[in-house]
Amino acid sequence: MNSTSAKRDEQRSRGGFLGALLALDRLLGLLERVVIGGCILAMALLMSAHVVGNLLFSQGIAGTYEITEMLIVVITFVGVSYAARHARHISMSAIYDQLEGRARKALLIVISLGTALLMFYFCFKSFEYVVALHDRGRTSAALHIPFWMVYTALPIGFVLAGIQYVLTALRNMISPGVWRSLTEREGYDESVLDDAAAERAADTQP
Amino acid sequence: DTWRFGLEETEGSVQYEYAQAFKQLIEKKSDGDITVQILPYGVWGSSYSTLYDAIQNGSIPLSFGSGFLGGTVPESQLMSLNYVMPNDQLEATEILNSDAFMKSDAWQQSFRTRGLVPLAALPEGYQVWTANKAIHTPADMQGLQIRVMDNSLLRATYQAYGASPITIAYGELYSALQQGQAEGNIQPVWAHENMGFYEVQDYMIFAEQSQFIANLIANEDWYDGLSDDQRQLLDTTIHEMVKKGDEIQKQLNQDRLKTIEEKSDIKIIHLDQAQRDEFRKLAKPIRDDFVNLVGERGGKALDILLEQEKARGDKSDGDSQSS
Amino acid sequence: MLMGLGLIMLVLLLLGFPMMVPLAAGTLYMMFTGMTFFGPDQAVSWMISGVGSWVLAAVPMFIFAADILTKGHTANRLLDVVDAFTRHLRGGLPITTAASCALFGAVSGSTQATVVAMGGPMRPRLLKKGYSDDFTLALIINASDIALLIPPSIGFIIYGVAMQTSIGDLFLAGILPGLLILVLFAIYCWIDSRVKGIDPEPRASWGERARALKRVVLPMGFPLLVVGGIYGGFFSAVEASAVAVAYALLLEVVIYRQVSIRDLGSIALSTGLITAVVFILVAIGAAFSQALATAGVPNQILGPLIDSIGDNQFLALSLIAAAFFVGCMFVDPIVVILILVPIFKPLVQSAGLDPIHVGVIVTLQAAIGSATPPFGCDIFTAIAVFRRPYIDVIRGTPPFIAILLLATLILIAFPEISLLLPSLGGD
Ligand code: NA
Ligand code: NA
């Protein structure tokens, strides 16, 4: 709850390079949120309306299938970047968890830069693919939507994710502490354990 | 050389049998210089657009593309129009593979502008309707929730018949037919058998409205880059395969129909000419929809097809009635 | 080549790269070394077709429905009713947790949402009562897996489509096995609290129970609506996921007024985030498995095994169970089901196995594997939700995994447990 306000304070107080990064980052984050949340809502609305149409009027909504499939593609690939921003990509942290201090920070920088490299490569490859689809003029079967428009989500998602990982590496180079993403500091949540212990202790008091 | 050959179907299908025979001929005639590597459905992936990507980017130079090709080559939807081919399956096969049609500018350019070359057409048998009620006339089809692919022309065709076409994913189709969400289905006989759809349907209706047609296509750069010898080898082999393909298709569908009849008490209906004509009348305006959708080049290809039928004296009960 | 592939992926994985990196690196390795003749262009096409699938729409939709219920009243009402009936038993609190997970599983289709919805409120109560965090986390993870067996279930939908078998029958088939596992877990919880000497809570009055029951009448409409709707031919299993969302909205926005229209945006966003995290692995996993398939690896490994088994049903089921169990230890169950079902389909047919029975075994393995180290995806969900270190999350899992493997043996030995309900419900 107060972590967001703390974040804002910090952004205000820092000028220059990091401040500019954070501003850019916030703008991109807003874009991702609108796209991802919007796609989920649109999917729920479309599919429900299709079912209702089928039940009441024996007539579903033409193109429900292909639009749903397109929405999933957009969510997935724009989500790559959004998940990177919130350090939510699944990873196997057993070894990483054992490291501390500089070693941990160094490994995180290597991981971030390596992942960024892959993201940029996929951005390049998917950009080529989108151009090829554009040239071949492939469209969907029911609504004849050009696929290249929808699949532009891939290069965009990958490049934004790549930028996220570079920013994470930069943040770790500039700022003290270990940062799992540009704006999220690393840490486990001990609060529930502490609360429970405290409550148990309180219960046993006379 | 290795020629990779992608199929939209799995082992034991019409496409697979065709590819096997094709492989034997090519490998024998080339004295082993060329090996044909058959890649059935599943090996290259499971979504047809992946296969078409592979043909267009050249990683699979030779492949079949059927009713799913519409987004990639819009004009190919000509093959799913109803009542534009002769009733006789062999005759339809011959017309589609005639130089007049297959080598026509309209048909060739439809594919070549998308980096592909059409080499042949392999009809895989009639598209057969199934339903839980008997269908003899368009009146019987009123409001029937028949499953069609999510494709604007097919949807328009069945709406013209009076049905309420419903879209269902192939993987969910069996359940949907069983539970009654879909009341009818359109597949070639082998697919009805293969997927067990007949188990949950009561009537099987041969309206001879269209065949399931797979186009044999090649990557344009690959085809144009073949040596003269190799291209001639390919062309002559494909020519030999026309009749063979028809035999494979008929044999396989006959066997599958027998299995269906043995394993179930599904009732089989063949529409007579008068009944077919009722549907034919309703399907005819969809030809204009087709031209509006895909453009003049597609219209030209359709005209060539219809001319060829007429030129052959037409043993079918088509527009130019005879028999 | 195969060695090099395994080595690269393992090193990247162990170093702690996001799991999409080793999968992608493995895919590109096969492409650049010529193990598969496809190039990286095809990888992009495979990724898109891997997720651009109608069936997968059920995943975000069920998660969305569950997220709405978690934010609203339904989750707590379900907890209260189970609590009223079980808290006086020895081990009552963990049994409540397990049963609530099963019940929430009957309302939602998603194990991940179950971890959040039931694990979230139950964990502090368990800790306060003196249960260790190891036990608590392991219990939540594994009990949430019951959600995969009790309809509606994303696992069954994906399996049903891949195997071309009736999803409605699979749903019915999962109910008794789900309850069996619940009973086994309850026995373990009873023994565990006896050993630890944790006393039960006071019994709830019948009045309290009746009130709690009355409050779950509407939430219990979910299983009826979803299963009934599919069986009645009103909608398909995938469409049912959207119906679940609509019903969740009706309940929480219109009737209980616990979720405002404005909340929906942020709920949708968190649903989208979970979806994206899983689906990028589905996408790259699809490219990886397709590259693997064109390189002929699955057939090299499984082909001889499948041939040698022939029509020995016990061996066939055991092999299938083992393959899915191991697969889900490493990759998301959705990906594993999509990849392995086509490979094993011929074996199911040649051994004369009932695809419904196989579906129950497979889905159970997916559930177990995904709660099993090293990479079971439930573990990562728990890490993300509870923000605990990896080691803490897995420490308490072995007894639960042992129980689930016992359940597997029981279900293999007695197919009737799975097949009874579908045989009653079928045509
Ligand atoms: Na469930
Ligand atoms: Na699970």
Our Rg estimate of chain A from Cα atoms comes to 22 Å
Distance between the termini of chain C: 51 Å
Strand fraction of chain A equals under 5%
Radius of gyration of chain C, in Å, reads 21 Å
Helix content of chain C: over 70%
Ends distance of chain A: 34 Å
Would you tell me the structural class of the helices and strands of chain A? mainly alpha
Would you identify the regions of chain A where 5 or more consecutive residues have pLDDT less than 50? Answer: 1-6
Work out the number of β strands of chain C.
Answer: 0
Structural class of chain C: mainly alpha
Characterize the biggest β-sheet of chain A: none
What share of residues of chain A is helical? over 70%
User: How many domain modules of chain C?
Assistant: 1
GO molecular function (chain C): transmembrane transporter activity
Pfam families (chain C): DctM (PF06808)
Protein name (chain C): TRAP transporter large permease protein
Subcellular location (chain C): Cell inner membrane
